[in-house]
What we know:
4 copies of one chain form a homotetramer.
Chain A: E1 3-8, H1 22-39, H2 44-48, E2 53-54, E3 57-64, E4 73-84, E5 87-96, E6 99-109, E7 111-112, H3 123-132
Antiparallel strand pairs in A: 1-4, 2-7, 3-6, 4-5, 5-6
Amino acid sequence: MTFNYTRTIRFQDTDAAGVVYFANVLAMCHEAYEQSLAASGINLKVFFSNSSVAIPIVHASVDFFRPMFCGDEIFIKLMCKYLSSETFEVAYQFVVADKIVAKAITRHVCIDAVSRSRKEFSAEIVRWLREWGEQGKLI
Amino acid sequence: MTFNYTRTIRFQDTDAAGVVYFANVLAMCHEAYEQSLAASGINLKVFFSNSSVAIPIVHASVDFFRPMFCGDEIFIKLMCKYLSSETFEVAYQFVVADKIVAKAITRHVCIDAVSRSRKEFSAEIVRWLREWGEQGKLI
Amino acid sequence: MTFNYTRTIRFQDTDAAGVVYFANVLAMCHEAYEQSLAASGINLKVFFSNSSVAIPIVHASVDFFRPMFCGDEIFIKLMCKYLSSETFEVAYQFVVADKIVAKAITRHVCIDAVSRSRKEFSAEIVRWLREWGEQGKLI
Amino acid sequence: MTFNYTRTIRFQDTDAAGVVYFANVLAMCHEAYEQSLAASGINLKVFFSNSSVAIPIVHASVDFFRPMFCGDEIFIKLMCKYLSSETFEVAYQFVVADKIVAKAITRHVCIDAVSRSRKEFSAEIVRWLREWGEQGKLI
């Protein structure tokens, strides 16, 4: 199933070229990711301040098709994909006025926050992957 | 009348101390301000890319009472105050779980975007000031 | 003594009005503060990830006199002021091409990071206060 | 030739996991890019507020190998690559204490800022590409 997140482009998101600063698009991806975690019942405060487990991003990529302006209403479609027992990917599609304006991917690895060695996902992440993934298919 | 804006604290808003980075609180104030403009029917894209008129912030201050954490749901109460035909102030109160966690003020001056000399507010700003102000009283 | 920090305005610092986004000025203040700590021999990594002591900002204010543009070379003059055994203020002056473009103040309180109760400054902070303060006089 | 840019990790760059927030690494790439433009004699203020030509990023990707902490001194090695008369790529390598901590790429397309149709690079961009490129070889 696809998770949908709506977001208004803020003045802060823009730069002197009058459009969204490129790196801020990845920050919006992370917002959608956080919201999808919350939608699966995951407590964000606990999840992101966990001192034993972390799921850092090891890779991100983004393609820009059209500029986004302050005030634009963007619809972010998120879909996750299980890669292994410690790795997943999240794909994001940004839509404004029925046109795809950007696409992005983030790859995450579950690690022990202290030793930084790989660690299997918790049950709640497995549940989240089942909820917002679709038979190994990305957007 | 008070304008109310709800916002979830995002991972990006935090710093290595585990709480919201201080300057990001002012960015959230501006988000609430933008949302209040939109609620009064102002087109944000036109408003913030206007090449003839600008309403830059000339002063801002903020007081922090309690830390804000990733995942916290914050309620921002915004109230504006007419100071002169080219100046207004906006007051913001941040509430988490019924406790005031921060207060802030921004002061704005209307100028000609090219000459940067003062200029009277447009009719839509006067309407916005009437809608979200309260007889010259700040929060 | 005044601590001096030089910084080029980056594209990311700007917004769609073509000038520096107001809240980013406070982030630049913090950069200058960090650099002044490092100049006094304080290890920033240890200082900002200290799990027992924290010195959060409880108040900040900023005044803007002129716009700052991408590429501008800014000179930030920092001076700190001892207020009590757990409180200090830092004053910042932003200068571009010999003109003051902004002024800011941050107030910090030393606390126990767990209980969040007040705590006296460490010896290294006292030394930093002596180095960059001037007989209780702010800029 | 490789362009080298040094940058201290700031508190603002970090998140509640205690390390640099992933999207901020791309913002640091852009800082290095801006500095390389300035090093070739390009006026950043004119370049980034040019109302007729723009060189937006159409693609970015980043790989993270090790975490970066507040206070870390990072060395960014930048190299650009000519792809066509309107397209170039920039590759970035992040090094901390002689270890590669991240790698990134940004792809840029030169366009007419109004019509948003493709446009050939100006002479100054061609000069910059010659200065920081190396026979079509990326890092």
